[in-house]
Amino acid sequence: MLGPVILAASRSDRMRRLISAAPVTKQVVDRFIPGETVRDIVPIIKDLTAKGLELTMDVVGEDITTPEQATAARDAYLELIDRLRDLELGEKVEMSVKLSMFGQALEGGHELALANVRPVVVAAAAIGTTVTLDAEDHTTLDSMFAIHEELRRDFPQTGCVIQAYLFRTEADARRLAAAGSRVRLVKGAYKEPAEVAFQQKHEIDKAYVRILKTLMEGEGYPMIGSHDPRLIAIAQELAHQAGRKLDEYEFQMLYGIRGEEHLRLAAEGHRMRVYTAYGTDWYGYFMRRLAEKPANLRFFLRSMVSK
Ligand code: FDA
């Protein structure tokens, strides 16, 4: 029951101001968002890659309100990519981007987001890596898929995310399960109405398995974005049944969640990519992590009263 309430709060400016100003917030936020600047995040990139993990980097931010903020988002990614060039990690460190941070919801937003994200994709390709477009709420997805298709003309390795809770996703998965495509499948983290999305966990899990089967049996590169132990075991089985080798799919999990499982899968020889978020505009990302697990909220509230 708590999840939808927290997700509603994640879109409230009043709650944003309240929570961002709370003195204890930072230590809880750090678990999921371990830095604010490129300088903070580079030691973490070095540490995780030295442990055999791969990364996808997210500069936190979304729902911006001016074109200048969209340009600043583009520049933040370009700064990171510039620093990654020196580390020579190639595709071990890719980028995840939210198009709303690149201006998608502003006037002329589709073109603006495309214009802002393209230089990031170009810069990533120049250092031997790639970009994945995150999936946001369902109203943004037609534009996201169109931008994905446009970027893939020149950069076919550009990835995208699909969300198992949406009714549309089985059809999207069939379209995307083609040679050369990289698709991350997640359960879905936004508050979606019953007209477009499954509401029950067991329905979402069942849809996840159906869609994963489509991706595994297809010709693209599936990226399994989940911490759910059952789905991870099923993914291994489906990959085996589809005759995929260990480097023909990968697991992805979020920084700060089930860290020992990241290492276990990597030690088994799997490609394991950690979605690592950093930056100052962490509110929306942080609230979605609270909504996913009520125990996180209890911990957060306890640390507020114990200060
Ligand atoms: P589930 O929620 O059932 O969790 C399984 C287990 O994992 C839990 O029992 C718990 O142990 C642990 N766990 C999960 N979430 C936790 C948390 N917040 N704190 C502590 N423990 C937790 N969504 C989206 O809509 N668009 C996107 O682009 C992305 N991108 C993305 C990238 C990657 C790499 C991942 C892993 C996830 C996303 N998501 C996302 C989020 C996704 O939709 C979903 O909300 C979370 O992954 C939680 O779902 P699980 O599959 O982990 O299962």
From TrEMBL:
Biological source species: Streptomyces diastatochromogenes
Name this protein carries in UniProt: proline dehydrogenase
Keyword presence, Oxidoreductase: yes
Gene3D superfamilies xref list: 3.20.20.220
Enzyme class, broadest EC rank: oxidoreductase
Catalytic activity: L-proline + a quinone = (S)-1-pyrroline-5-carboxylate + a quinol + H(+)
Keyword set, alphabetical order: FAD, Flavoprotein, Nucleotide-binding, Oxidoreductase, Proline metabolism
PANTHER family documented for this protein: PROLINE DEHYDROGENASE 1, MITOCHONDRIAL, PROLINE OXIDASE
Gene Ontology molecular functions: nucleotide binding; proline dehydrogenase activity
